[in-house]
Amino acid sequence: MYGKIVVPVDMGQLEKGGKILARARELLAEGGQIVLMNVVEAVPTHVAIELPVDFIDQSVKDAEEKLSALDAQFAAGARRIVRIGAPVREILDVADKEGADLIVIASHRPDFTNYLIGATADRVVRHAKCSVLIDR
C-alpha cells in the first residue's frame, strides 16, 4: 500500500482518468493521500497569437472543474493540482515535491515512435524517483 499517490489525468481521456483514479484508491494505504493532477500544456508564442487572450486561463479553469467532478464521482477525497507547462516535467515535479510513493498513469495505444507505452508514460517511467504504475 502507498501513502501518497500522484494521478495525472489527461482531460482528453477522462474515462482513463477515472480508471486510474479507481486503481489508485485500491492501492492507497489507510490515511494516505491521492494527488489528482492535470497539466495544461504551454502554447508556443507563434501559436498563442491565434488563440483567444484567455485561452490558458480558461483551460486551467476547465481542468479544475473536470478534476473536481472526477474526484467527486469516485469519492477519492483527492487534493487537486493543475499546472501549466510540459506534462512530463510537471508530473515529475509534483511527484518529487509531494514525496509521492507512486505515480499511476494511463497510457494510450502506442504508434511506432513509442512502441511499448505512450510517450509521456515512457518518460515518466524513465525519470521518476518513485514507483510508476502504467495502466493500459
Q: What's the short story on this structure?
A:
With 136 residues, the chain is α/β, with parallel strands linked by helices. It is 43% helix and 28% strand. The chain has one domain: Rossmann fold (3-Layer(aba) Sandwich), CATH 3.40.50.
What is the CATH architecture descriptor?
Answer: 3-Layer(aba) Sandwich
Overall shape: it is globular
Give the low-confidence spans.
Answer: none
Strand order of the largest sheet: 3-2-1-4-5
Q: What's the alpha carbon Rg, rounded to whole Å?
A: 15 Å
Helix/strand/pairing category: alpha/beta
Number of domains: 1
Q: What level of helicity do the residues show?
A: 40-55%
The CATH superfamily title: HUPs
Kindly describe this structure.
The chain is of the alpha/beta class and 136 residues long. It has one domain (2-135): 3-Layer(aba) Sandwich (Rossmann fold), CATH 3.40.50.620. Helices cover 43% and strands 28% of the residues. The protein is built from five helices and five strands. It has helices at residues 14-27, 45-48, 55-73, 87-98, 119-127; strands at 2-8, 28-41, 79-85, 102-106, 131-135. It has a five-stranded parallel sheet with strand order 3-2-1-4-5, sandwiched between helices. The longest helix is centred in the middle third of the chain and has 19 residues, at 55-73. The radius of gyration is 15 Å and the shape is globular. The mean pLDDT is 91.
Topology (elements, then pairings):
Elements (H helix, E strand, L loop, with lengths): L1 E7 L5 H14 E14 L3 H4 L6 H19 L5 E7 L1 H12 L3 E5 L12 H9 L3 E5 L1
Parallel strand pairs: 1-2, 1-4, 2-3, 4-5
